[in-house]
Each structure stands twice: as structure tokens, then as C-alpha cells.
Amino acid sequence: MASMVPYDRYTRALRNWPFDEFDRFFDAPFAALSSTNQAGFKMNVEDAGEAYVITAELPGVSRDEIDVELNEGRLSISVDKKESDEEKGKNYLYKETGEWSATRGVYLKDAAVAGLTAKLEGGVLTVNVPKQVEKTNVTKVSID
After folding, report:
1. In CA terms, which of 65, 97, 133, 135 is 20 to 30 Å from 19?
2. pLDDT for residue 34
């Protein structure tokens, strides 16, 4: 037990590895394939009384690259970001931007279909989903 080194000290010792930057350069193209810490984009859901307000941070994304859909209470926001044609002609050695897609969703049990609004302003998508009056599906039956 005395010869064990805490993990944080071990990683600090490896930070001085002379080929760190070299390794990171060649690992970068494969970093997009491992989505362990990425959710795609940040999304907040707020209960504002008579409606839900959903905000999604989508910097650099245009209106035609976003799809918002409400299907049986499930609100889905999908983004399909495409790289512009003018940038494809450049000769990049390393590039961190490009084409990507992501979908986030949330279940809103009392979401109304009528009155939905969505607005994209300053890289933030805001979707307002009005609530409907909950219908009672339970019928009490008296026993004779």
C-alpha cells in the first residue's frame, strides 16, 4: 500500500511527457468520435407557469439547420450543421470545425400543440410551449 501513488500525482507527472502535444495533434481527428463528455449543445427547460420555456445554445447555427418537433409530449431539437462550400477550398492542416449533428429532447406531459413559438436570436434558440389543462383519464366506477 505504501508504494501506491495517488492518481492525480500520476497524471501531473505525465504532463511533462515530451511528446504530449504531438500525441494530441494526431488524436484530435478521433476526438469527435468519442462523445463521452459532450451532449451536443446546452439546453435549459423552465416551467414558467402557463408554459414551458426551452432555451438551447446554438452559436453559429442558422435557422434552416435547426428542426424543432413536438410529438406526443416529446419536444425534440435537432441540429444538422453543414460546413459552407467556400471554406472547403482552403488547405487546412488541422481544423476543429466542420459538419456535425446533434439531437436533444425532453418529455413535457402537458404540452399543448397549439400556440408553439420558436425564435433564434444571438445564437440562442427559445421555444415556448404552452401547457394544456390536464385531462383526467380516470373514471370512478361505483360498485353495486
Report:
1. 97
2. 45
Helix (H) or strand (E) holding 68: strand 66-71
Measured CA to CA, the distance from residue 42 to residue 57 in angstroms comes to: 5
Task: Give yes or no for a contact between 127 and 58, defined as CB atoms under 8 angstroms apart.
Answer: no
Give the tens place of pLDDT for each residue, 85-119.
Answer: 556 677 777 776 667 889 999 999 889 988 999 99
Q: What is the DSSP letter of 109?
A: T
Q: Quote the pLDDT of residue 37.
A: 41
Q: Is residue 86 helix, strand or coil?
A: helix
Grid cell in block for residue 24: 494530441
Residues in Cβ contact with 66 at an 8 Å cutoff, skipping those fewer than 6 apart: 58, 77, 78, 79, 120, 125
